[in-house]
Design brief:
The chain has 308 residues and is mainly β. 0% of the residues lie in helices and 41% in strands. The chain has one domain: Kelch-type beta propeller (Neuraminidase, 6 Propeller), CATH 2.120.10.
Length: 308
């Protein structure tokens, strides 16, 4: 273990408990969005250390990674409805924090709809990789798509080397990294939840310069799904997640993108999964999520990672 930093809990209950939500930065404020059931958007000001409740999404939205584009936050590749047959959203949804307004955006092609995928923004386009079509039941895919905001067009790209869902993706130096996740379509005759043990440790990387996929030689040290992800100083931090163990994971796993070697850093104060992370002022913030395997307990705390 190579501890370069530490996690500390900086908020113990001023936000709405939720999981399978997004947490994204816009204009130096953070926004908690969605999660199972009807949850309001909540805005966090890191300077004032204050939360503010805003409007609710137009429908239940969960299992997604929001991306910030100019004056808006885009939700692409989300689910709605209850476990285990959640439906993928038919449209992109757009939230404008300055006006606290929601808009129903363009329709997603019917044959490319899914949720729980890795979603990133890169040079004017929103990219979706992986995901699952039918909630926690079946339909794992290795699809890779992009939505061009300027032309309002959808394009199907080369499939990822493997299907995965319940995972985050991140772009660093013109490369997309798909890390963690699982095959939620995996079940056994006597155990519907066998998918908790079907985690994926391979790391798939897409190079935007040559439009090619590769699988890194080193696997994720501890296989988990639904972890948080962030990049600081050419190190990708992947932390938390869930597997077949009862409690959510607290490991912080770090990938040096120059050496492509992994090491472990300081663990989270509270294991959690099913939420996003924000980088601000060279620190990482993660809020809410679930503290155990599955959906309970929903957490109402926020942690901050600082390099020491």
């Amino acid at each position: 273990m190579d501890n370069n930093g530490k996690w500390e809990i900086i908020d113990k209950g001023n936000l709405t408990a939720r999981h399978e939500n997004s947490f994204v930065k816009y204009k130096n404020k953070f926004y908690l969005i969605g999660g199972r059931r009807d949850k309001p958007v909540e805005e966090y000001d890191p300077v004032e250390n204050k939360w503010r409740k805003l409007s609710k999404p137009p429908l239940e939205i969960h299992h997604f990674h929001a991306v910030t584009v100019d004056e808006s936050i885009y939700i692409v590749g989300a689910m709605t409805g209850g476990y285990p047959y959640e439906d993928p959203l038919e449209n992109i949804y757009i939230y404008r924090p300055d006006e606290d307004e929601w808009t129903k955006g363009p329709e997603i092609p019917e044959d490319r709809r899914r949720g729980s995928c890795g979603t990133v923004y890169y040079k004017g386009k929103i990219y979706m990789v992986g995901g699952i079509i039918d909630g926690h039941n079946e339909g794992l895919v290795s699809w890779f798509d992009c939505y061009d905001l300027a032309s309002d067009t959808w394009k199907v790209l080369e499939d990822c080397p493997r299907g995965r869902d319940h995972f985050p993706a991140i772009v660093v130096d013109d490369k997309l990294y798909a890390i963690g996740g699982r095959d939620t379509s995996y079940h056994t005759e006597d155990n519907f939840g066998a998918f908790f043990d079907a985690t994926i440790r391979e790391v798939d990387c897409y190079d935007f310069n040559n439009n090619q996929w590769q699988t890194l030689s080193e696997k994720l040290p501890v296989g988990t799904a639904a972890g948080g992800i962030a990049n600081i100083n050419d190190t990708i931090y992947y932390f938390g997640g869930e597997s077949n163990q009862d409690t959510a994971h607290n490991e912080t796993q770090c990938l040096d993108i120059n050496t492509l070697k992994w090491h472990l850093d300081a663990p989270l104060q509270r294991g959690r999964h099913g939420t996003q992370a924000v980088v601000y002022d060279d620190s990482i913030y993660i809020a809410s999520g679930s503290g155990n395997r599955g959906g309970a307990p929903e957490l109402s705390s926020m942690e901050k990672y600082s390099i020491v």
